[in-house]
Predict the structure.
Amino acid sequence: MNQSISFFSGFGPKDLWFLPQAAWQTLVISALSISTGTLLGILFGWILSESKIIGAVTLGLVLDAFRSVPLIIQLVLFYNLFNVIGLAINPFWAGVIILAVYTSALVANVARGGIEAVGAPMRRASRSLGMNYLQTIRHIVWPIGLRAVFPSWVGVALGVLKDSALVSVLGHPELLKVARDLITRTQQPLLVLAVAGAFYFALSYPISRYAAHLERKWQS
Amino acid sequence: MKLLKLAAAAAIASTLAAPAAFADKLDDVINNGVLRCAVVLDFPPIGYRDANNEPAGFDVEYCNDMAAALDVDAEVIPVTWAERLPAIVTNRADVVFGGTSDSLERAKTVGFSIPYAIYFAQAVVGKDSGITSFEDMKGKRVAAAVGTVPEQEWLKIAAEWGEENLYQGYQSENEVFLAVAQGKADAGITTNTAVKPITDQYETVVAGPRMPWTTDYTSVAGPRKDVTWLNYINLFITHQVRSGRYEELWQKYVGDTAPELRIPGVLY
Amino acid sequence: MNFDYTFHWRPVMRKLPDLLEASLTTLQISVLSMIIGITFGLILAILRMNGPKPLAWIATGWVELARNTPALFQLFFFSFGLGAFGLHLTPYFIVLAGLTFNNAGYLAENFRGGFQAVPETQMRAARSLGMTAWQSYTRIVIPQVFRIVYHPMTNQLVWAVLMSSLAMIVGFRELAGETQALAFKTFRIFEYFAVTALIYYVMVKVILGLSRLIAWRMFRY
């Protein structure tokens, strides 16, 4: 046996560099899917609030399904579907697309809540002030609705940031996947888990504090 | 007259187009100039990453050899045990070199070549687990990688013993080894070729008994319907043996004499 | 590459009883993790609000870790992380511990919000009516808190069911794990996961429907 072949290595400085790189991947996946998902979700939320029954039985049902099936199942299912129908798509983009749709389903609910938080009397009042539909949305519904649901939106975004860890099941080297590979290669589970956990915490905690702060400020 | 000309042109065009429409995988690979091999790099010494994090091992060499035979570039796509066959279904890879047991269940989804390497299942056990024979594994916590043949075979035995609850499935073979090293599991089922590198690596892990089920004939996997492609792979495998390359690579990576690939009493 | 795949649905239908049985396991572990999670969540909420300093810090640490790291990360911690200390849980208890840890963290925040929403004057009013502290807590405060947190609690139960699917990563065979194991025999992954997605959908709808029914029975006066 050729003894020069080695299959494992200890934990080296090079490995510590893999984790920030992977954390960057997590951030990119989250940023892409949260931004597209939010835009889509606001659009869906608007459709849901404007077209009560037709919207609810078509779009509403579909979006509800995305909220009622575990994300990990959705990822495996749609990744395989993409490939089965001949869309050769890599795990990164598959993950981003599925996460974005999932985000949009959650945001749609939030957005609808925001739009409906602005009651019909207020909208009628603005119309009677001579504003047209778009002006009402722009100057009345948007600012008031945003305040009402911004904390919920931050909650959704933080959830998606953490859920992006599930893209690891598709094999994309984001933070959790790289952490798992490093654990088995270096046999330092505690060190690697602590570093990976610290990265997630550092990404998520400040935002959640800020959202809580905003919520308190706006409530008073 | 004009119409006739047009018809002739159409006929010529269709005969020129027809062969392209029937291009098989072999044509595709040659024309694309690249052979995409899905390789499991979680399977030392058959597939692993070397000190520079580059793919290496018996399977990687086979991929390179086949690409050389086709006169195309080799592209190694690292996959896990669970991903290797979907890689074919989803057309992310042209072939899988991944120690794939040619089970009849899997053959419903992908196509298999003739066997290109033979293994048997063997356990690695914790130093203090006290397991020396297969019978000793009764009542012990046994681990294997999810979706592998060893997992399915072990679960049959565990069901007979009423010990399915003691089984632990992991996402990769490396996690199985770590579980045995940590003591989360008493024994992990792996392949005979992996035993030496693993026991060299982990102080707390020693070689365990051989598993009672049959020899693990592994095949190269390709698209199920592309029979011409599978034929080419078969021919490649026989050439590797005839040229002595099989023996050479097996000795380089595994160390022993390469096992006979023929199945006694069967013509294929 | 064009569409060249024939779906195999019949084998999945033949395995449907196995999948349904596994979904009972999913329900069982989710509900159990909720019951234990509610207990811990209450303790954490009370400790954070008026426990001694060190205990309050521990409670805060638990809550923030549970809420600011991925659930899958938490499962890994209970698997290989604890393994490094020589503490080895079976796959079942890894999942149960992970889900409970996460549930308790989220529920603690819900409970804290619930307690803060009940005005302190209520407690004083109850005491002045001659109730003991225990009586006023259990008869006046807790019922109101329960009413406030009922809806978030049902949501958390739905989350627990969805989250339990992560068990497939640590090798426990609830619905997702069983699906994975069955799908990997023939690698007809799409077919198996499509049916499983449907089962999850139905489970979630049944839970939400039941919770609405219970809420309607309990909270109407």
Observations:
- Chain C has a mean pLDDT of 92.
- Residues 16-50 of chain C form the longest helix (35 residues).
- Residues 20-216 of chain C form a domain with the MetI-like fold fold (CATH 1.10.3720.10).
